Amino acid sequence: MSRLQQRKIKQNLYSWWSMILLLLLAILFVRATWNVYLKYHASRMNLLSLEERQEAILQREIELRAKITDLESEEGLEKEIREKFSVVKEGEKVLIITGKDEEVVIVPQEKSFFRSTTSWIKDLFR
Questions:
Q1: Which pTM value belongs to this model?
Q2: Which residues are CB-neighbours of 86 under 8 A, at least 6 positions away?
Q3: Fewest C-beta atoms under 10 Å: which of 85, 91, 94, 117?
């Protein structure tokens, strides 16, 4: 190749048209890369969110298993019934503190589960 041919090739490579073409190609590549990066970033955020959600679900599972284990025992079952339905065993009394220091009222509790549940429901509407 002669010097003249090399010079023509160099002139064509460094011409305005070839620079504009190379700039457009570079812009297209950068844009495609940027779009891929945005998808990667969104996927990464989704992954982190799902990992946090999974950790919360696993923690909730541990809590529920502990509660199930507690409810399988007689004491745990009795405790849950007392908390949910405000009942006491036969012979036990309920102590009601009204806020006044001199007045403490002890009320005997009904003996049947049905009566205590109905009185609890009635108390809701008072």
A1: 0.49
A2: 116, 120
A3: 91
| Confidence category of residue 89, pLDDT binned at 50, 70, 90 | confident
Overall average pLDDT of the 120-125 stretch: 72
CB 80 within 8 A of CB 71: yes
- Looking at residues 38-57, what average pLDDT do you find? 97
- Sign for the CA dihedral angle at 10, 11, 14, 20 comes to negative
3-state secondary structure (DSSP) of residue 59: helix
SS3 readout for 66-126: HHHHHHHCHHHHHHHHHHHHCCCCCCCEEEEECCCCCCEEEEECCCCHHHHHHHHHHHHCC
Spatial distance between the Cα atoms of 81 and 91, rounded to a whole number of angstroms: 17
CB 97, CB 88: distance < 8 Å:
no
Residues sharing a CB contact under 8 Å with residue 85, sequence separation 6 or more, in sequence order: 113, 116, 117, 120
Residues, the chain, total?
126
Under DSSP, the state recorded for 14 is T
